[in-house]
Design a protein that fits this description.
Elements: E1 4-7, E2 10-13, H1 24-28, E3 31-39, E4 42-43, H2 46-60, H3 68-81, E5 87-94, E6 112-119, H4 122-131, E7 133-139, H5 154-165, E8 170-174, E9 180-183, E10 187-191, E11 197-199, H6 210-222, E12 226-228, H7 233-238, E13 241-246, E14 250-257, E15 260-261, H8 269-281
Parallel strand pairs: 7-8, 7-14, 11-12
Antiparallel strand pairs: 1-2, 1-6, 3-4, 3-5, 5-6, 8-9, 10-11, 10-13, 13-14, 14-15
Helix pairs in contact: 6-8
The structure holds N-(5'-phosphopyridoxyl)-D-alanine.
């Protein structure tokens, strides 16, 4: 079966799908994106992802290229045409095509939109989660508005590559005060020795993860105590547990940071229970 992408109003075979070389997304990373989990052919937390999409677009003054109702249909159609039961749907909107000039085009452009859907192997993901993953830390060298889900991801790309070269699955960014901000494509969490769950407040220094928001609900339901504050790398080394969250990884236990085992070096009870209960608190549509 050939895979299909939605590009500016048309469903095309992936191999034939392309964008204009003067698309501002291609030239300036002038655009935003969303990644939404698909489970059992349904979208997970679509409402919140669409809210964040609109927020990102507003922050960058890019118009929504179609009505929310039409977009809902396109997301579903793309999932169906690719026969994705479990996986992700990727949605990208850029400011559109214009003669190269850094400032916004004088005549407003039609924003470009691309939607793709891909399968994920959840059995493999469960196997990874049962072992836990290693992370490394890198200095946070990103701009100050990483709360916008922009496709401008060069520091994230370089951080993830550094992780890979050190046999780790994720890189945690660290601010100039030695405190973890977030991962290159995930939010970062620890569980302290006295059982408190700590994660950085969702200000402009992190992306406010949708998974993060739902995990806060799961925590409340499980009666876990939250401390929404920055934590240092030293604190993370001394933590009982560490984990990360994202739409594609849900809750992923972190068992090593910079080569040091966290807790007893195995996935922790808190992270495992949050992962287990996550979809009971997520919205399906
Ligand atoms: N990444 N922080 C960053 C920098 C991210 O890129 C992501 C998501 C998150 C978690 O957000 P959410 O829980 O809404 O997925 C935090 C997506 C999955 C990606 O880039 O593929």
């Amino acid at each position: 079966m050939s895979r299909v992408a939605y590009v500016n109003g048309r469903y095309l075979p992936r191999s034939a799908a392309s964008v204009n070389i003067e698309d501002r997304g291609y030239q300036f990373a002038d655009g935003i994106y969303e990644v939404c989990e698909v489970r059992g052919s349904r979208l997970v937390d679509e409402r919140r992802h669409m809210q964040r999409l609109e927020r990102s677009l507003n922050e960058l003054r890019i118009r929504m290229p179609m009505s929310p109702a039409a977009l809902r249909i396109v997301l579903r159609e793309t999932i169906q045409r690719n026969r994705v039961v479990d996986g992700i749907v990727y949605l990208q909107i850029t400011r559109g095509v214009a003669r190269r000039d850094h400032a916004f085009p004088v005549t407003p452009t039609r924003p470009s939109i691309v939607v793709t859907a891909s399968r994920l192997d959840f059995e493999k993901a469960e196997a990874v989660a049962s072992e836990g993953i290693a992370v490394i830390t890198v200095p946070d060298n990103r701009w100050e508005r990483v709360d916008i889900k922009s496709v401008s991801l060069l520091p994230n790309v370089l951080a993830k590559q550094t992780a890979r070269e050190q046999s780790a699955k994720e890189a945690w960014f660290v601010d100039d005060q030695g405190r973890v901000t977030e991962g290159s494509s995930s939010n970062a969490w620890i569980v302290t020795r006295n059982g408190k769950v700590v994660t950085r407040p969702a200000d402009h220094s992190i992306l406010k993860g949708i998974t993060r928001t739902v995990v806060l609900d799961v925590m409340r339901a499980q009666g876990l105590e939250l401390e929404e504050r920055p934590f240092t790398v030293e604190e993370a080394y001394a933590a009982r547990e560490a984990f990360l969250t994202s739409a594609s990884q849900i809750v992923m236990p972190v068992v090593r940071i910079n080569g040091r085992p966290i807790g007893n070096g195995a996935p922790g009870l808190v992270a495992s229970a949050l992962r287990r209960d996550f979809h009971r608190h997520a919205e399906f549509s």
